[in-house]
């Protein structure tokens, strides 16, 4: 398993778009900051043909320490959820994306 880094994405932008390396890095950082800011506000971010990022609230619940069996309260929290589009899902599974519109992320 390999990790895709910001530097690799920035380098790909540089080679494909033709911006300078510095401009490519700035563009990537701006996009990531915009996505993060929207998610921090609790908004949903939809990238057509890729997927949807959203924040979900998990309520207070009781958990159990698996080692001791003692019940422990788990406080409410926000969790980040990613839902892939039909297109991304099909590509990951090696299926044909023919007939899937890039706007059909809502399945």
TrEMBL record:
<dbReference type="Pfam" id="PF00216">
    <property type="entry name" value="Bac_DNA_binding"/>
</dbReference>
<dbReference type="InterPro" id="IPR020816">
    <property type="entry name" value="Histone-like_DNA-bd_CS"/>
</dbReference>
<comment type="similarity">
    <text>Belongs to the bacterial histone-like protein family.</text>
</comment>
<dbReference type="InterPro" id="IPR010992">
    <property type="entry name" value="IHF-like_DNA-bd_dom_sf"/>
</dbReference>
<keyword id="KW-0233">DNA recombination</keyword>
<keyword id="KW-0804">Transcription</keyword>
<comment type="function">
    <text>This protein is one of the two subunits of integration host factor, a specific DNA-binding protein that functions in genetic recombination as well as in transcriptional and translational control.</text>
</comment>
<dbReference type="InterPro" id="IPR000119">
    <property type="entry name" value="Hist_DNA-bd"/>
</dbReference>
<keyword id="KW-0805">Transcription regulation</keyword>
<protein>
    <recommendedName>
        <fullName>Integration host factor subunit alpha</fullName>
    </recommendedName>
</protein>
<comment type="subunit">
    <text>Heterodimer of an alpha and a beta chain.</text>
</comment>
<dbReference type="InterPro" id="IPR005684">
    <property type="entry name" value="IHF_alpha"/>
</dbReference>
<keyword id="KW-0810">Translation regulation</keyword>
<keyword id="KW-0238">DNA-binding</keyword>
């Amino acid at each position: 398993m390999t990790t895709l880094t910001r530097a690799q994405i920035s380098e790909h932008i540089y080679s494909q778009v033709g911006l300078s390396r510095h401009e490519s890095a700035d563009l990537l950082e701006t996009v990531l900051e915009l996505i993060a800011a929207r998610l921090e506000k609790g908004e949903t971010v939809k990238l057509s043909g890729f997927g949807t990022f959203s924040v979900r609230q998990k309520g207070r619940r009781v958990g159990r320490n698996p080692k001791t069996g003692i019940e422990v309260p788990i406080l409410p929290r926000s969790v980040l959820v990613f839902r892939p589009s039909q297109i991304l899902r099909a590509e990951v599974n090696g299926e044909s994306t023919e007939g899937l519109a890039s706007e059909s992320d809502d399945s």
